[in-house]
């Protein structure tokens, strides 16, 4: 109950205070390239239930039709405004709507696409999907430069599956073990500090 109240207050206040910035981001996206302001993708949430996550669009419209699902730095599908949004992480702010809808939490394991969730070891899958996915967590902070990291690999998808994903899952399991309002507030503060540092 306390966590959901924190989510509602945090997401509501965030959307209210950031409304001018979000409007400018939406305008920049529309002026930069044709297509919708938001990009929606199927992710796996609590209990294995699928939902459609919101992000500000950073790539050309329907990018999945013209390339791999995983995105790395330097991907030709990323728009000019999109590159800036990705660097600043402002594209993730649209997920505040998902928090209000109850599909996500401010803090929790980042939701994955079904194809990667299928690779989770059974015990970790049950544990990680026992809580609402979040906008940030230990893994999000640790891998905030994930796209650039994968860009240096000859096979980004394989590098993600074999190197990055296992480390993310360990950090996500750590969050589930430590979940609570105090942990959430600490991770929110660390996330904001990392964003401001950029």
Automatic annotation (TrEMBL):
Keywords: Transferase. It holds the Pfam family Bac_transf. One of its GO terms (molecular function) is transferase activity. Signal peptide: none annotated. Residues 3-196 form the Bacterial sugar transferase domain. Belongs to the bacterial sugar transferase family. PANTHER family: COLANIC BIOSYNTHESIS UDP-GLUCOSE LIPID CARRIER TRANSFERASE, QUINOVOSAMINEPHOSPHOTRANSFERAE-RELATED. This is Sugar transferase. It comes from Sphaerotilus microaerophilus.
